[in-house]
Amino acid sequence: MLPFLLRRLAAALTTLALACSLVFAAIHLLPGDPVAIMLGEQAGSDPASVARIRAQLGLDQPIGVQFMHWANALSRGDLGVSMRTGEPIAAELARRIPRSLELIAASLLISVAFGVPLGVVAARARGRAAGVAASVLAVAGFSAPVFVLGIVLLLVFSIGLGWLPASGYIAFHDDPLGHVLALILPAATIGLNFMGVVARMTRASLSDVMSKDYVRLARSKGLPRGRAIVRHALPNALVPVIAIIGIRAGNLLGGTVIIESLFDWPGLSSLLVGAAYSRDYPVIQGTLLAIFAMFIIISLVIDLAQALVDPRIRRPVA
Questions:
Q1: C-alpha 293: how far from its chain's center?
Q2: Neighbours of 64 (CB within 10 A)
Q3: Cα(43)–Cα(312) distance, rounded to whole angstroms?
Q4: Helix locations, the chain, DSSP H
């Protein structure tokens, strides 16, 4: 396991270095002057402000010098300050990242808690009423647009029944129960949408694994069908499911802007979109870098989880 871990760590660090270079290049090498874009019409009437901001951001220096200064500051954890608020970007990311991770973790927990059992039922009861019902629920889950599902849940559980708050974020240390209640609707919206993908992947993978010789051998020795699935088939069937969960988790890092806007959840997506609207170039750069880094970390965790489930993955490719 240790050699596998070291290989994955080396790959993750290499990918992170490339991501840093890509984020820098994406902001600095785009056509046009980012300061002029940031100031808009004011740039033409106030060239002194343009020159001052360019010097403040280091954009008046050669591109190689800019990269070295940026990389040096990045190694110290310094991502600069927001041009709009003047607040340190690292501090704002430290507030936003836990909120996004919490929302992603809760939504994935819901999708796995409902999707895996649905997939198992659909595989075991193929062609029967239970299997058809599970497949219909799975298709309904991923077919519904996420914003439509969110509005329906909000109308039913918040406006109709009054069980849950419609929107807003409450810090856990201020009101633990209120924090959990505010998290339920946005997490359920994402989780129920992704539940269908998990269910269909589990069904397809489990159906394939159940036809393998080692599962048939276990059944021929008298092991009940349910125990054969749980002990032998399901662990191997979960390998592709874990992979798709990891991809989805990475995509959600910057792709929950609709849900964050609908439920007023202050995460990374809303920060990135707000920075783009206000042309806050340092915040865009810092947020993109944070999303890249978290995606790489999640990918590393998923690789390790797959290796724990399937030991064959740990072996180096010949």
A1: 11
A2: 8
A3: 59
A4: 2-28, 34-39, 42-45, 47-57, 63-75, 89-124, 129-143, 146-153, 176-209, 213-220, 225-228, 234-252, 257-262, 268-278, 281-309
How many other CB atoms are found less than 10 A from the CB of residue 18?
Answer: 12
Both ends of the chain: CA-CA distance in Å? 17
Residues in the chain: 318
CA distance 83 to 214: 61
Q: Which of 269, 270, 280 is nearest to 37 (CA)?
A: 280
Calculate the CA dihedral of residues 100, 101, 107, 109 and round it to 10 degrees: -170
171-195: string of b/e by CB count within 10 Å (b at 16+)? eeeeeeeeeeebbbbbbbbbbbbbb
Express each pLDDT in 185-242 by its tens digit.
888 888 888 888 888 888 888 777 777 766 666 667 666 666 666 666 777 777 778 7
Q: Which residues pair with 81 in a beta bridge?
A: 88
DSSP state of 191: H
| DSSP one-letter code for 179 | H
pTM for this one?
0.76
- Locate tokens 């990374």: which residue? 268
Return d(Cα 119, Cα 202) in angstroms, integer.
5
Nearest to 139 by CA among 131, 151, 127: 131
